[in-house]
Write a structure and sequence with these properties.
Blueprint lengths: L4 H12 L3 H9 L23 H9 L3 H8 L9 H7 L3 H19 L3 H29 L5 E4 L2 E4 L15 E5 L7 E2 L8 E5 L8 H11 L1 H9 L6 H8 L3 H13 L3 E6 L2 E6 L1 H14 L1
Parallel strand pairs: 3-5
Antiparallel strand pairs: 1-2, 4-5, 6-7
Length: about 290
């Protein structure tokens, strides 16, 4: 995809200066086919909030019985001597995997972290706005056309035919900057339910909408209204819109008086977010311009 082209060129150039590309082809690619099954241990649920180093240690330290059970299901990796060593939890193979993931993180993830984070945060803003405006039903409806919510069933475009019964468990919906095509879940139904989907973007924040709404209320005020699609501080608004704190405060007061925005205190934070009326206005202008 075009959005990944700059990342791909840079990573390929940086990886070519070492043996990383060769190791990816030799070790990682046999475990990650273009479609179909890939091992759950590569996406560990535990310690996901403790940093990338902890995640890498969790992957490299996967118990032997889990390695054997999941690698045995692979079609593509059969015949690989290295995968056979990893299947038997050979310490040298574990260290190879640990070093590969660390090197990949240093070259492919860390230098591009701001772009990756912004992509995921934009998706979070979309889902938060949908939840504020329509509750859980609004949130689940916001995933169309990738998912279709017909209570009590969430239908998902998926690479295989699979039915997952939550049985009272929660479902972790995880946006992926690098996700393409259908969503993915863990293969083992006994693991905590996770659904990974391609991170979306806020289509209402496009330049056409800003210009059209700007003709109604002015460009700065329109940009602030669009930026408050999810709860945002005054300082963040000033940074995103590119104006002073005093200017933001002036426009926030006007938007509040018009019933398009509300302000609330969350602990020590003062947050501003669009009201349902404000969202309806933004969405109507966006729909008119598309």
């Amino acid at each position: 995809m075009a959005r990944y082209e700059p990342w791909y060129r840079q990573v390929r150039a940086d990886a070519a200066r070492s043996d990383l590309l060769q190791r990816i082809r030799h070790m990682l690619m046999p475990m990650i086919p273009a479609s179909g099954y890939f091992p759950d241990f590569l996406t560990p649920e535990k310690r996901r909030h403790e940093g990338i180093e902890s995640i890498i240690e969790s992957v490299a330290g996967t118990p032997r019985n889990v390695l054997r059970g999941q690698l045995d299901r692979l079609e593509r990796g059969r015949g690989s001597a290295w995968l056979e060593r990893l299947r038997e939890a050979d310490p040298a193979a574990r260290e190879d995997l640990r070093r590969l993931l660390s090197d990949y993180q240093a070259i492919a993830i860390a230098p591009h972290w701001n772009v990756i984070r912004n992509s995921v945060e934009a998706d979070r803003a979309i889902r938060t706005r949908a939840l504020l405006d329509g509750g859980v039903h609004g949130l689940l409806h916001s995933y169309r056309p990738l998912m279709r919510w017909t209570p009590p069933v969430l239908h998902v475009r998926y690479s295989v035919d699979q039915t997952l019964h939550l049985n009272g468990r929660g479902l972790l919906l995880t946006p992926s900057h690098f996700g393409q095509g259908p969503a993915n879940s863990l293969a083992d139904p006994a693991l905590p339910p996770v659904l990974v989907y391609p991170a979306g973007y806020d289509s209402t924040a496009g330049p056409v909408t800003v210009r059209a709404l700007g003709r109604l209320m002015g460009g700065t005020r329109a940009s602030i209204l669009i930026a408050t699609g999810t709860a945002t501080t005054s300082g963040e608004l000033a940074r995103r819109v590119g104006v002073s704190a005093a200017t933001v405060s002036h426009h926030l007061s006007a938007l509040r008086a018009a019933g398009l925005l509300s302000t609330l205190q969350q602990g020590e934070l003062i947050l501003h977010t669009r009201t349902s009326t404000g969202s309806a206005l933004v969405n109507a202008v966006h729909a008119e311009g598309t």
